[in-house]
Design goal:
Layout: E1 2-5, E2 8-9, E3 15-19, E4 22-26, E5 34-42, E6 46-56, H1 69-72, H2 82-100, E7 109-110, E8 125-132, E9 136-141, E10 148-150, H3 159-175, E11 187-194, E12 201-207, H4 215-221, E13 227-234, E14 248-252, E15 256-260, E16 263-267, H5 277-291, E17 298-302, H6 308-314, E18 319-324, H7 327-339, E19 345-349, H8 352-357, E20 364-367, H9 377-384, E21 388-393, H10 396-406, E22 410-418, E23 428-435
Parallel strand pairs: 4-6, 7-22, 12-13, 17-18, 17-20, 18-19, 20-21
Antiparallel strand pairs: 1-5, 2-3, 3-4, 5-6, 8-9, 8-11, 9-10, 11-12, 13-14, 15-16, 21-23, 22-23
Helix pairs in contact: 2-10, 3-4, 5-6, 9-10
The structure holds S-adenosylmethionine.
The site of S-adenosylmethionine has 18 residues, from helix 6 and strand 18.
Length: 436
Amino acid sequence: MLELEVKKIGINGEGIAYYNKKIVFIDNALPKEKVKVEVVEETDKFIKAKLKEIIVKSPFRVEPKCEKYYECGGCNLQHIKYEESLNLKRELIIEALEKYSGLNPRKFEIKKTIGMTNPYNYRNKVSAPIKDLNGCAWGIYKPNTNHLVILHDCIVQYSELNDLLNKIVKLMDKLGFKPKSKNEGLIKYVVARQSSYTKEIQVTFILGETKTDIAPLVDEVKKIPNVASIYSDINKGETIDIFGSKLKKHFGEDYITDKLDNYCFDLLPNAFFQLNPSQAVHLYNEAKKAAKLSLKEKVVDCYCGVGTISLWISKLAKEVVGIENNKEAIKSANENAINNKIKNVKFICGDAVAELDKINDIDVIIADPPRSGMRDLTYKILDKEPKRVVYVSCNPSTLAKDLKVLSKKYDVKYIQPIDMFPFTPHVETVCLLTKK
Ligand SMILES: C[S@@+](CC[C@H](N)C(=O)[O-])C[C@H]1O[C@@H](n2cnc3c(N)ncnc32)[C@H](O)[C@@H]1O
């Protein structure tokens, strides 16, 4: 047993301490706590330890609200006061910058994290694995295992989606849609997204094989209030994505429609759409504020998804070009421009680097890449030399690495953190860079 003082939290929400200069990761320990831990794994570089006793407790420690919290692993910051978790998320950004960017984060402003007034039931989409565990069950895989933690009520998801999943697994039992073995299911996942505006729900059954006939299940699920469309897709386990390439509609409308601020967005099941709509409004407003548009600018929105940011900023720009490599998302983006009566926006389906290469005389580039970051796009931005770059990031580490490249020609003006996923260690940021 070791006695350690926790110094900070890590990117996965774990407490970080040091033992003989070696980093020690301790799940559920909080900064400034003195703890007794048991070593469970030791390598040349790190120690993983289990929290056994808290000798000095953090004043910010609270009782988690979810009864499955210590078993599930879906959230890792429920044991700390919400307001303090916002401060810790800001710290995570500073640390990532210190570690990877080569910049001194004290030289520009890192604003306070924009949090939620009510940080519960914020998630508009679930992708729930289904298993037969003495009856069909939905839940979440415990991280790095195939052990399904059964859930009935997840406090971060829309409660109507919890109810929907509870009803669907009951129907699966009743109609004999049992997974074949413990791991391999006829229905492997249920993906469901609910519009925050119309309350419509879009359900997608992710199947393990093509011959499964889900018609009897569709007939029952379509009777559940607010279910507006039902799809299926096939996932044979070849990729890490839940969706495959055989999306098929079984019932209802092609799209469900969500509305953020004054903009409507039509959504197909596999198009990216922010998971926390009320915080997405803050995110997009911050991106608009950072872009500092005055009706004269040509803007490129790289990684535009269904066109959310492009449309959001369009009224302040001369023209906007959105680039996105997902065909369905581009289809939705074009519909969204028409439905919102916006004419100065054009969407291109293709790779961000290749397509940006073909565009000249750009005033502002906005980029909202996946967690892997911008990578080669940073060099393309250096070539194109826009006046401003607005970097919207969901991963402080890749943000910091990309800023290292971009800072050859750009100054970081400020970073605005936004809490899109309360109780998880994730943090979104909007970063403004201006040409030196
Ligand atoms: C974080 S999402 C941002 C979407 C959008 N800005 C929003 O807020 O809804 C990243 C998007 O980048 C797209 N994407 C991933 N790799 C890409 C690439 N190499 N070129 C273009 N788009 C890409 C994904 O399909 C996804 O829609």
